């Protein structure tokens, strides 16, 4: 079956890798042009481009996939099916009309819950006990197309977004191979309409979402830290002169009380900090310009004392 694969980052790379292992090699891989991943660095190809190049697949770098020249290039392939995973662009009706069998998408949630760009973090932030992967038909509306297959997994009690993302990426690849195999055999899965009344939409995170608000409860902060780890992460400052910018990675809510942002306990294993309700136990931190370190390393390196405070600088 002749495929075109659309994808960008790690989640999509896992889907492409699964297709290649199953010998469903795309005729063309569509991906954005190289980008600078950090200031001053040279532009780098996407993870999907790296994998496609390694497999010797033709690559189409495209800034605007719905441009008439892009449509002409895609029509020339004469593909039967388009496969989309973490691509980041809305496909136009003209583009979706090109493949004879349509276009399918790998989405990291149990649709219709958590449509949108951040479904893995959204599931953790919502306190969901389970999430999963859905293979759906692509329509012009965001993640609203009929579902072809779906598989659920339980979210671990301490699992962060990075860990859950990696599990779902592998699961997405496995499920995609099953669905593409069904199309190739001439027996595509039955379309199942989504229940619109149950749909939720998650948004992209803004810089302000990463600011650690010590007036929130410790359980809410611990949940938020899991949902935003490893990127964009939660950030605060140790209020010294000058303030020290600090990323908070490993943490958990514990019993006790203290003024929001104040260090109430210091050990070689953790720092307990007051919140609006309960204490937030810091286990791993990332001082600005330094490596990720344990709370004990941070305490020893910066001589952190009880009574010091965390909060917004300035």
Task: Assess the beta-strand content as a share of residues.
Answer: 15-25%
Major β-sheet profile: 7 strands, mixed
User: Strand order of the main beta sheet, please?
Assistant: 3-2-1-4-5-7-8
- The helix tally amounts to 8
Features:
five-stranded antiparallel sheet; 314 residues; elongated; Methionyl-tRNA Fmet Formyltransferase, Chain A, domain 2; alpha/beta; 8 helices; single chain; Rossmann fold; 18 strands; seven-stranded mixed sheet
Explain what the structure shows.
Helix content is 27%, strand content 24%. It has helices spanning 10-21, 47-55, 68-77, 93-96, 119-125, 161-184, 218-227, 295-302; strands at 3-7, 28-31, 59-61, 81-85, 103-107, 115-116, 130-137, 147-154, 201-202, 234-238, 244-248, 251-254, 263-266, 271-274, 279-282, 284-287, 293-294, 310-311. α1 (10-21) packs parallel to α2 (47-55), α1 runs parallel beside α6 and α5 runs antiparallel to α7 (218-227). The chain contains eight helices and 18 strands. The protein has two domains: 3-202, Rossmann fold; 207-311, Methionyl-tRNA Fmet Formyltransferase, Chain A, domain 2. The strands form four sheets. The chain has a seven-stranded mixed beta sheet with strand order 3-2-1-4-5-7-8. A five-stranded antiparallel beta sheet has the order 17-16-11-10-18. It is elongated, with a radius of gyration of 23 Å. By secondary structure, it is an alpha/beta fold. The N and C termini lie far apart (60 Å). β16 (284-287) and β17 (293-294) form a beta hairpin.
């Amino acid at each position: 079956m002749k495929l075109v694969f659309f994808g960008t980052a790690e989640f999509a790379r896992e889907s492409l890798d699964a297709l290649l292992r199953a010998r469903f090699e795309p005729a063309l891989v569509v991906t954005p042009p190289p980008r600078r991943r950090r200031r001053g660095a040279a532009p780098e190809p996407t993870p999907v481009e790296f994998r496609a190049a390694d497999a010797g697949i033709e690559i189409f770098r495209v800034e605007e996939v719905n441009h008439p020249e892009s449509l002409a290039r895609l029509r020339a392939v004469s593909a039967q099916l388009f496969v989309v995973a973490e691509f980041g662009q809305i496909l136009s009706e003209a583009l979706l009309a090109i493949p004879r069998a349509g276009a399918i998408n790998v989405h990291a949630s149990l649709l219709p819950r958590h449509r949108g760009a951040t479904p893995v973090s959204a599931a953790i932030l919502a306190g969901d006990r389970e999430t999963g992967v859905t293979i759906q038909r692509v329509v012009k509306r965001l993640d609203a197309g009929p579902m072809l297959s779906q598989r659920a997994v339980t979210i671990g009690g301490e699992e962060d977004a990075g860990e859950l993302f990696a599990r779902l990426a592998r699961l997405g690849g496995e499920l995609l191979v099953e669905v593409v195999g069904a199309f190739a055999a001439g027996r595509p899965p039955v379309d199942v309409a989504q229940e619109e009344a149950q749909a939720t939409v998650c948004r992209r995170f803004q810089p302000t979402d990463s600011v650690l608000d010590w007036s929130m409860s410790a359980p809410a902060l611990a949940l938020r830290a899991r949902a935003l780890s490893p990127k964009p992460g939660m950030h605060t400052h140790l209020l010294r002169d000058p303030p020290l910018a600090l990323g908070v990675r490993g943490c958990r809510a514990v019993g006790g009380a203290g003024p929001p942002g104040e260090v109430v306990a210091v050990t070689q294993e953790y720092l307990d900090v007051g919140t609006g309700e309960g204490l937030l136990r810091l286990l791993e931190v990332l001082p600005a310009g330094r490596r990720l370190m344990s709370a004990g390393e941070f305490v020893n390196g910066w001589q952190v004392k009880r009574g010091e405070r965390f909060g917004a600088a300035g």
